[in-house]
Amino acid sequence: MTKSVKAKESFNNIEFGFDKATISRDFEAELDELVAVAKENGYAIKLSGHADAIGEYVYNWKLSKSRADQVKNYLVNKGVSASKIASTEFGDTKPIASNATSEGRKKNRRVEIEIVD
Questions:
Q1: Residue 39 and residue 56: Cα distance in Å, rounded?
Q2: d(C-alpha 95, C-alpha 104), whole Å
Q3: Where does the pLDDT of residue 10 fall: very low under 50, low under 70, confident under 90, or very high at 90 and above?
Q4: CA-CA distance, 113 to 117, in Å (whole number)?
Q5: Domains along the chain?
Q6: Pairing mode, if any, of strands 14-15 and 44-49?
Q7: I want to staple 68 with a disulfide (CB 3.0 to 4.6 A). Which of 4, 29, 49, 110 is the partner?
Q8: What is the model's pTM?
Q9: For residue 89, how many C-alpha atoms fall within 13 Å in the half-sphere facing its CB?
């Protein structure tokens, strides 16, 4: 069940460059806010890693795992307990936009963040 977060109702997806698992500085403020909220309230966090449909299925699966792991490592390095973070990789199996356009593929290269009980 998703908790209502006082400081912010939800957190944006963290997007990644093509074939990258490196967190862009553009998303550090979002992650820092997540760290503050999680530490202050003791929330658990669910991370879901995703990829676009360019490339081989298994490669994209591993890439989506690397992306989720990078976000988890960022949060842990900022003080969130690793035991409070669960991550799952989905490869290119759950797109949120069309993989036929570059803008759609950009949205699909993401880690989704959910605050959970």
A1: 38
A2: 9
A3: confident
A4: 13
A5: 14-116 (3.30.1330.60)
A6: unpaired
A7: 49
A8: 0.91
A9: 20
